[in-house]
Amino acid sequence: MATKCDCDQYELRTAFFQSFREDEVSLFCEEKVEKAYSRGDIIIREGEGIKYFSYLRSGLVKLYKTDAAGKDQIITIACPFDFVSLLGIFSETHHTYSVSALEDSILCCIDISLMKGIAMKNGRFSMNLMERLGAVSNKIIQESLEIRKRNTHGKVAYILLKFSKGIYDSLVFDLPVSRREIAENLGMTTEGVIRTLSEFRKEKLIRINGREIEILDDAALERISSFG
Amino acid sequence: MATKCDCDQYELRTAFFQSFREDEVSLFCEEKVEKAYSRGDIIIREGEGIKYFSYLRSGLVKLYKTDAAGKDQIITIACPFDFVSLLGIFSETHHTYSVSALEDSILCCIDISLMKGIAMKNGRFSMNLMERLGAVSNKIIQESLEIRKRNTHGKVAYILLKFSKGIYDSLVFDLPVSRREIAENLGMTTEGVIRTLSEFRKEKLIRINGREIEILDDAALERISSFG
DNA sequence: CGCGGCTTTGATGTTCATCAAGTAAAGTGG
DNA sequence: CCACTTTACTTGATGAACATCAAAGCCGCG
Q1: Of B120, B135, B187, the CB nearest to A127
Q2: Is A141's CB within 8 Å of B187's CB?
Q3: Are residues B65 and B135 in the same domain?
Q4: Model confidence over B156-209: pLDDT tens digits?
Q5: What does strand D contact on the protein, if contact means CB under 7 A?
């Protein structure tokens, strides 16, 4: 399932590593492998040793933790060019969360010690990496605070708008997650999510067809998201 | 309020920057200033431009956001040798949260561009910094997830144990925060916090005297924290 | 002294989780 | 390909958890 990297260097440099020197880009691409996963595949299991530094090239994945009772808590949903490796990557030896594919996904992976080696030798690269990792972690913290302060209606409106504007950039989209996963992300129950979606439907704010969602009244959802 | 740095280099190197070269430690200490704050002082206001990279040398501070309605949401409480600057420091130009002193505190601050300069030139230092920043951010994310999954009793038990074991290392301690601030940290109401504390008191799990708390039944609190 | 902020308790009501039951959809094995 | 099982989705009824509202005491500070 791992294939040689074929993503072009231009993409790599614009998306991530403006500070790469020519020889480093070459080295990086030489060593980097792509791994393809299907929807539902578990990519990383909590507790596994950290082997790779990786980012999402295409698709969609969820980062989550499983508690003693077997219940999952979704930390965040990562989009292309988000890092799958969060900051723990440099301070931990083992993954503190699991990762699985919500859609067919391609990850670009590079050996963690090689990554560290490059970072050690190139301060600019380190800084660049820190900026990017920092932005991703910050986003997670911010989002967590945003979700926490909302009531159930606000939470559901928030995540619908996130999918619509943040991820798919369209008023019509297929939810990449089950109702249960939405609940695990928002800190609600599955029934609560379903009930809220149904209410939005009855109030003609959205149209629902299985996992397909159409946002009919964007402004109202924004209001609910801000207020609730 | 700013004075020349007098913290010794040993402390600095063991706590943070094992990878500092001699000349860098000197440069760092040359440029670094200490700032003293009194309980209640606001150290950083959300929205201000980022001037310094800083860490807490002594005391206790809270990081928080204020919403449109004027309500505060406490992101985390930082202990000595935690960074006050989170990761945003390298990806943002302005602070995304406020910081204020819960106890009299001393911050060590260094000009942010100087910091970047050192990081650019010394990859090992960058890596070191990333490890530390990563650990702090990770801790915040983990803690946020821990709090989110608990009910009110579990939340309050969790924070009491955090103060007892994580911060003061004692069964008796003075709460550094008001009931309202606990509520802002846990995502509860002030009354809810008070009520829960009273219940713990009635069940003889804790003794309360104003802000002084004594933990009487550690095991029971642990149980409530794990279960609830 | 009096004002405002912090703390506390009680009464009330809303929100939301839980439980139960049923339908639809999707995967599994013969 | 179809019976079978499992998982996802949906709705309603119920009750518990928790926020909100109200009132009063306390303390520090100008």
Answers
A1: B120
A2: no
A3: yes
A4: 999 999 999 999 999 999 999 999 999 999 999 999 999 999 999 999 999 999
A5: A 178-180, 190-191, 194-195, 197-198, 208, 210-211; B 151-153, 187-189, 191-192
What pLDDT score does A84 carry?
Answer: 84
Kindly determine whether residue B91 and residue A131, on different chains, have CB atoms separated by under 8 Å: yes
Residues of A with CB under 8 A from a CB of B: 65, 67, 73, 75, 86-92, 96, 116, 119-127, 129-135, 137-138, 140-142, 144-145, 148-149, 187
Name residue, tokens 């009244």.
A217
**B91: CATH:** 2.60.120.10
- Yes or no: say if B43 and B90 are a contact pair by the CB < 8 Å rule: no
Specify the pLDDT at position A11.
62
Percent helix, strand, coil in chain B, to 5, is: 45, 25, 30
Q: Same domain, yes or no, for B130 and B207?
A: no
A194 alpha-carbon distance from chain centroid: 23
CATH number at residue B162: 1.10.10.10
Task: Indicate if A139 and A165 belong to the same structural domain.
Answer: no
User: Count of domains in chain B?
Assistant: 2
- Residue B206 corresponds to which amino acid? I
The two tokens of residue A183 are: 């609940």
Residues A20 and A54 in one domain: yes
**Number of residue pairs across A and B with CB atoms under 8 Å?**
126
- Residue A204 has a CB neighbour count (10 Å cut-off) of 10
As ranges, strand C nucleotides with an atom below 7 A of a protein CB are 6-11, 15-20, 25-26
Which of A146, A179, A201 is the last residue before a domain boundary? A146
Tell me the per-residue pLDDT of B106-118, one tens digit each, with 9 for 90 and over.
999 999 998 888 8
Q: Which residues of A touch B116 (CB under 8 A)?
A: 127
Task: Give yes or no: residues A128 and A168 share one domain.
Answer: no
The range of the structural domain enclosing residue B158 comes to 150-227
Backbone torsion region of residue A40, taken as left when φ is above 0, otherwise alpha when ψ lies between -120 and 50, otherwise beta: left
- In angstroms, rounded to a whole number, what is the distance separating the alpha carbons of residues A75 and A56? 16
Residues in chain A closer than 8 A to B74 (CB atoms): none
Same domain, A162 and A133: no
Residue whose Cα is closest to the C1' of C10: B195
Strand partners, A53: A110
Last residue of a domain, one of B115, B146, B177: B146
